[in-house]
Design goal:
The structure is a homodimer of 208-residue chains. Chain A has 208 residues and is mainly alpha-helical. Chain A is built from 9 helices and 2 strands. Chain A has a two-stranded antiparallel sheet. In chain A, helix 4 packs antiparallel against helix 5, helix 4 crosses helix 9 and helix 6 packs across helix 7.
């Protein structure tokens, strides 16, 4: 397709496409003349990826790191997946000890990976909750765990298995784009349950 | 307690405490002399709340809005809860129609509340995933839903019921501080499952 069609298919303006080409984020099209190039579905998909990642506020540097992994995943797809997820949100503090996260993972007894970058993220999140007086109890963690694992299993069941680039793209986008969907559904779940509860208690009109 | 003890109990520096007092975010202590005031647990708790909300990047304006609701929840606790959650993250675009969110909520058949602020958040998140070519299918939504509801039920079961201020505080902190915990556990769940899968497939050393 011509670049004009690429613009309409991807929804990315021409100026941005030219910029991504210059920066090496978008691979060049197949040159058909001195001034024309032919683009295909891989270009549409790449632009969607860039758009998606920049839409959630990722810097160009981090998007570049993720695209480099998609283009050259290296010998271990598992490591590439971990590195790509790391690029989405590097831990706020480089801290080697993760006492809260380690304890939580031990408690859950699941084969979590202590050296995965999300462990630092978990440590930071648990510490923040604790500092605010709403630290997660073991009971809360145990109640959450099976449901989060079930959600993760739904995701991984849909991961492309024979194309490492597609697998990384899926994991990166599924991580960063589904998190706000889960958060919104949880908030709506709270609202539905609170409405029920307060209605039953007659607290909707309770004078406080 | 003296203000010095309030500093050590809350972990908030004196200068910040003075600032919060001036701004009306922290209620004044009980004056015991012209230069001394007595503080109690309510002050420690309030400072933890401010610290927690500013720690996740909330502006002082939004923190003020939430504290105003805690101080005066008004006649409907349910409305106050909704307004407080709204203050956490106002929808990026004020859009009256939510076609994707409405369809998703209808599909899930749960008593979600179409006029809750998180509906706009859901609409935005579903649209972003769709634009990137990883739109949520009905099957994915149906697979997610019971687990998100179960997590929301764990949260609401722990909500304080006889103190509206405590209920708002709990919902606000539990929403904003537990979301990153859920996200980190989901990412670790992905990693554990991907490790299993790739290991079984022999893809860990698969030359790509």
């Amino acid at each position: 397709m011509l670049v004009s069609e690429l613009v309409s298919r991807s929804g990315v303006p021409l100026a941005s496409i030219k910029y991504y080409l210059r920066e090496g984020l978008l691979m060049p099209g197949h040159a058909t003349s001195a001034t024309r190039a032919d683009y295909d579905e891989t270009h549409v998909r790449r632009l969607r990826l860039i758009k998606g990642l920049s839409g959630v506020g990722l810097s160009l540097g981090r998007i570049k790191a993720i695209i480099a992994l998609i283009d050259e995943p290296g010998p271990s797809l598992f490591d590439a997946l971990g590195t790509a997820v790391y690029a989405l949100s590097p831990p706020p503090v480089a801290d080697e000890s993760h006492p809260r996260a380690t304890a939580a993972l031990e408690l859950l007894g699941t084969p979590y990976l202590p050296d995965h970058p999300a462990v630092a993220q978990l440590e930071h999140a648990l510490a923040a909750a604790e500092a605010c007086g709403v630290g997660m109890t073991d009971d809360q963690l145990r109640a959450y765990a099976p449901h989060i694992e079930a959600i993760a299993a739904v995701d991984i069941a849909l991961m492309p298995r024979d194309d490492p680039a597609a697998a990384i793209e899926y994991v990166v986008l599924g991580t960063i784009l589904y998190e706000p969907i889960i958060a919104a559904l949880r908030r709506l779940g709270h609202a539905a349950l609170a409405a029920d509860l307060l209605d039953k208690q007659g607290d909707l009109t309770h004078d406080v």
